[in-house]
Amino acid sequence: MSAPKVVLVGPMGVGKSTVGGMLAERLGCLFRDTDDDIVTAQGRAIAEIFVDEGEARFRALEKAAVAAALAEHDGVLALGGGAILDADSRALLAGHQVVYLSMDVEEAARRTGLNVARPLLAVNPRKQWRELMEARRHLYTEAATVVVATDGRSPDEVAQAVLDAL
Ligand code: S3P
């Protein structure tokens, strides 16, 4: 059991999974994503967990998934966009190489269409995305050892920028 090589944090839709897969390939290691771990373990989509059991239940599942993945995974690990809300999860990130993939709201709108299937953006996507980012930006920044802006960059360019920054 050893520490992950790289942990990716940042907002939903920033490309953590796509970039994480590319990074893992280039670093010659495995990619893991805590959202996928939760979906696999629960046998349900994340949106279903939110609807059926509420956000608090999802956050408890996420907290356990983050702790397990940080303990078990030696490779590139992507955390769900809200994982850094939990203080214990943030504390577990200390000592790891943590990359914050950032993007502005216009880029978010372009990339995700501020997709209403994402449970936290269901009512007023653009406004809610802004509010989420205002509440979270400092948490991402504080958790990060490296910040990589993704605006105007392809996933391939972002992956290269991360490698250059590591
Ligand atoms: C969330 C982000 C999502 C997922 C859930 C909640 C958030 O993950 O965990 O919908 O609170 O920002 P991604 O960042 O992988 O989309």
TrEMBL record:
It is found in: Cytoplasm. Its EC number is 2.7.1.71. Pfam families: SKI. GO terms for molecular function: kinase activity. Its main location: cytoplasm. Keywords: Amino-acid biosynthesis, Aromatic amino acid biosynthesis, ATP-binding, Cytoplasm, Kinase, Magnesium, Metal-binding, Nucleotide-binding, Transferase. This is Shikimate kinase.
